[in-house]
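ingest -> validate -> predict -> emit
validate: passed (alphabet ok, no gaps, 183 aa)
predict: started
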Amino acid sequence: MRDISLHLLDIAQNSVTAEAKHVDISFELEEDGRLTMTVRDDGKGMSPELLARIESPFATTRTTRKVGLGIPMLKQNALLSGGDVMVQSRLGEGTVLTAAFMTSSIDCLPLGDLPETFVSLIVGNPEKPEFSLVCKSPAGEMDFSTAAVREALGGVPLNEPEVVNWMLGSLQEEIQPILGGIM
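emit:
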């Protein structure tokens, strides 16, 4: 993966596959340069047996192939930067994945295009689940949710071109002052 936002895309798509109704994503940048990405869902969750093997490239729930590289690659990239990955899950309740990166490390991946990635998740899944994004840093805080956008639009689909352009522009405008230094 070239950047953290592509890891986000992979992890959030796992939440969609797990039939989550809500996928809550957050990024928090601390004063010391530690960037923490959290993806929380209310999907199917994982059995204790699968959770114990989740960092293995041979642990996957997919039937089309026998390897799953998403979490192992994410963990490798986090560790290279001085961070780590933690996954908590309960069968039938959902999953929380937390990945930390030290942005001061030469080995830290760039954040990437977070607004584009988040909008791609929405456009690829325009009806469900509901997505939310919160970004925090010493420079400020923002939050965005598809539930609020749906309510404001009164039934206009989220994948309408004008809506997509508005969401992308709005997210770029809100995220840049908060996380712009690491994008």
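The chain has six helices and six strands.
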